[in-house]
Specification:
The chain has two domains: 79 residues, AF2212/PG0164-like (Elongation Factor Tu (Ef-tu), domain 3, Beta Barrel), CATH 2.40.30.100; 62 residues, no CATH class. It contains seven helices and seven strands.
Length: 161
């Protein structure tokens, strides 16, 4: 499932995109609030995962400063967007390093899988922010150890004790 290509611009608080209702309606009709997004501007293209949110009767999705910079857009620039059904397990791509570490630790994986979807995504984003593979592995191992110690606060899971 995919939408047609449509134009948007960064509006409001500069971290949000207003989405046309006719674009999001088919996704919401199938209870698909999380989507994969393709954004393009000039010669740049960016793929990311996002949630369709309703505020004040209008539909929005977050579009962070990091995404704006990667795409090369500024507030009030118009660029193209296309929405796709998100087939990922967690609503975001899990770094392969984190997946490998969780696969090697069944106890930690079981605890991880017991979390809400949002909490899982938060941990995945926490690991994905690192660029270095070894850092991703080390932080994933740290999360696993902290999970087994009974720590459940996402901010504390990435700290050594």
């Amino acid at each position: 499932m995919k939408s047609k290509v449509f134009e948007v611009s960064v509006t409001g608080n500069y971290y949000s995109l207003q989405l046309p209702e006719e674009i999001v309606r088919p996704f919401l009709a199938k209870n698909l609030k999380r989507v994969k997004v393709r954004a393009s501007f000039e010669n740049n293209e960016l793929f990311f995962h996002a949630a369709i949110q309703k505020r004040n009767g209008k539909y929005h999705m977050m579009f962070s400063k990091r995404y704006q910079k990667a795409l090369g857009v500024f507030p009030n620039d118009y660029f193209e967007l296309q929405l796709f059904k998100d087939d990922s397990k967690y609503g975001v791509e899990m770094p392969e390093e984190m997946s490998a570490v969780l696969s090697s630790d069944p106890e930690a994986r079981q605890i991880f899988e017991s979390f809400t979807s949002g909490k899982k995504r938060g941990l995945i984003y926490g690991i994905a922010q690192y660029k270095n593979r070894q850092t991703k592995i080390d932080k994933s191992l740290l999360i696993c150890e902290n999970l087994k110690k009974g720590i459940r606060d996402n901010r504390m899971l990435l700290k050594s004790f």
